[in-house]
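Reviewer 2 asked us to include a model.

Predict the structure of this chain.
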Amino acid sequence: MADKHQSATIPVPKLGRGPKAFYRDVVREMKHVSWPTSRDTTRLTGVVFAVCLMVAGLLYLLSLFFEQVLKIFVTGGS
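Predicted model (C-alpha cells):
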C-alpha cells in the first residue's frame, strides 16, 4: 500500500483568487526565470537577423526562378 507522503499529485492552480494574487504569482515565477546575459542577447539577436536575411534572400531567388518558369509556360518558350 502506498504511503501518503509518496503519492504523486499534480499541483492545481488556485483559480478565482483575484488580480492581486495573480500578480503575486507572476512576480514569484519571474524570480525563477534564467535571463540571458547582455552578450547572449546581442549574439542571439544577430543570429535572428542573419536567418531572416537568408530566408528573405532564398524567397527572392525562388521568386525569380518561378517567374522565369511561368514566363516560359505563358509565352511558349520565347
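The two ends are 84 Å apart (CA to CA). The chain has two helices and no strands. We have added this to the supplementary material.
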